[in-house]
Design brief:
Layout (H helix, E strand, L loop, with lengths): L20 E12 L2 E11 L8 H12 L1 H9 L3 H18 L7 H12 L10 E3 L6 E7 L10 E7 L8 H5 L4 H9 L4 E10 L2 E8 L7 E13 L2 E8 L12 E4 L2
Parallel strand pairs: 8-10
Antiparallel strand pairs: 1-2, 3-4, 4-5, 6-7, 7-8, 8-9
InterPro entries: START-like_dom_sf
Length: 256
């Protein structure tokens, strides 16, 4: 075996070049047999002067961070196939995690949600004209607390032709299919926030494009599931996290 000596090229203006430094890490996490989550963290010192405009630094950073997009395009498979594999893996995990205790903060959220579905909560619902004859749509206004506005609560009940693990589709909020629909509808952002992930929980943010004269609405929330015999439930709760989108989309915070 011989050591490759490399190649040498003369580059015009080499004497004026400034040597930068870079440090980074790639983390590849298996999601299914054929899909993985790829995280790249990089720190680069390009030896810019302190007078360099922030806009130039942002441009360089975006060019460097665009590399994962190129990798995704190079290795991309059929989006529906990938979504199906990810959902199937999560559905299998739900079966394995059946009856596993929730975290204390998750229990509190589920209890508050289940109050809306209890026997005492059955009164006061007003039927709405449904967009689907197989789905019952209802709305209810709860008395507001002092100093707060009254917020409407909606409920839809229907029968779908699938197993209860369809909740895996709901949990995969940033699937290929749902990202495509989000973009086609003209919305501005849809991201998964990974730093607080639990086995049964994920956090997301989305910015919805609203009509003229209305601010866009930002929703930052977490959703998590519990698996019981014959039933899988999912809860959604707004969180107070501040999200850096890299741009300022002009938004008003909404709550779910």
């Amino acid at each position: 075996m011989e050591t490759y000596a490399g190649t040498h090229h003369e580059v015009a203006g080499a004497e004026k070049m400034v040597k930068g430094t870079t440090t980074g890490v790639h983390i590849v996490k298996e999601l299914t047999e054929n899909t993985c989550e790829w995280t790249r963290v990089i720190q680069a010192d390009l030896k810019f002067s302190s007078a360099m405009p922030v806009s130039v630094l942002d441009l360089v950073a975006k060019q460097e961070l665009a590399w994962p997009n190129k990798l995704q395009e190079k290795l991309r498979r059929n989006g529906k196939e990938v979504d199906r594999e990810v959902a199937a893996a999560l559905a299998g995990e739900m079966i394995e995690q059946r009856r596993k205790p929730l975290m204390a903060d998750q229990v509190v959220v589920f209890e508050s949600c289940e109050e809306l579905l209890g026997v005492k909560a059955e009164e006061g619902w007003k039927a709405l004209e449904s967009t689907n004859k197989e789905v019952e749509m209802l709305m209810k206004y709860f008395p507001p607390k002092k100093g707060e506005r009254s917020v409407a609560t909606g409920k839809a009940v229907g029968v779908v032709d699938c197993s209860a693990e369809v909740v895996a589709w709901q949990m995969d909020y940033c699937s290929n299919e749902r990202m495509r629909i989000h973009k086609e509808e003209g919305h501005l952002g849809r991201l998964e926030l990974r730093e607080k992930a639990r086995v049964n929980e994920a956090s997301y943010t989305t910015v919805k494009n609203f009509p003229f004269l209305l601010d866009n609405r930002e929703f930052v929330f977490r959703q998590f599931w519990k698996s019981e015999e014959g039933k899988v439930s999912i809860a959604v709760e707004s969180i107070d996290d501040e999200v850096d989108y890299g741009v300022k989309p002009g938004k008003t915070r909404g709550f779910v």
